[in-house]
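Aggregate trends can hide what the representation actually does to any particular protein. For completeness, the protein is quoted in full, as a sequence line and a line of structure tokens.
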Amino acid sequence: MTRTESPLIKIFTPSDASACNTNAQNLTVKEVVARLPEDRFHVTMLCEGEPDPRLATRANTRLVKWARHGNTLRLLYHCLFPPPDIYFFPRTGPLDRLFFDARSRMALRSALVTYIVMAMDAKTSAGLIGRSIAEGDVVVGNSKYVGETISRRFAVQASTIYDGIDRRFYFPSEHADNEVPIVLYAGSFQPRKRVEIVIHQAARFPHIPFRLAGKGETEKSCRDLATQLGCRNVSFLGHLSSEKLGKEMREADIFFFPSILEGNPQVLLQAGACGLPSIAMELYLSDYVIDGKTGFLAKTDSDLAQSLDQLISNRAMRRSFSAAAIAHTSQFEWDDITRQWAAIFEEAAERRWTSLQKKAS
């Protein structure tokens, strides 16, 4: 019997099904799982809080409740008895390490489908991330550039599957743009995101509202910097749900994102879908922004400032970029993307099954 004759492909993913979890990686998995055909795919996920209602009501879905203790062993049990056909989107925790070891030593039938969402260099490719690429049956990057960095560093061919837009939350505004533009940043507060640059720009434009959504380790220092520079035009919004973030994007006019280490940030796609021109760094060559048409991809920090100057001072440019961003992001639809993932899961399961059969014969 070949693997494809089995009625269900069983997938395990160490991803959180909670409705309140807005981490980009977990959002991706939730959107894909919610759309996978129930009669072809059984999915096991963890769930730390109240589940996404689409997953809670999906047939052939097991949500393993997060507990105060013993989560790694409980989740490992679901990976071994019986092993899934697909282990999807490994992370860097103890569960992943234990599963990798068991898969290798016990020749488990589970195919490893690795999804990489960060450009690979000496630092980002270390440890379990590198191992998940080297041992992966299928490796996928979330942009062409990410795939290229995987190929250069590991000599592994990586295909590209983009993230999509949750149209429940991210869609264009029905209202006219603001006479005085509003600048928005959304993302975590950590060193690589360089939120301090947003605040320094706010100091240059005291009459322009700057709104910062997110939280993290550098939030206190950013608040202190805003106070030091007298930035009364800066608002710290904290962590926002997808619904609230979409509303903020529709009320803003410019999305400013100075991060220097990314893969293909979902937040740039979400901003574009809401009609926001984006300013980001060129370093990671995001496919969600077309330089000079839907926003700007800056080579230097000076370019960031100049791009912001242009968009703040030129209302016609903002409107043109906004329309182009809406048109460009219309191609990134979760239904189409899920069909790509479904095909990969089927191919990976069949390939792994065939490989083990050959070794056993």
Summary: Residues 334-360 form the longest helix (27 residues). Residues 3-164+333-360 form a domain with the Rossmann fold fold (CATH 3.40.50.2000). The chain has two domains: 3-164+333-360, 183-329.
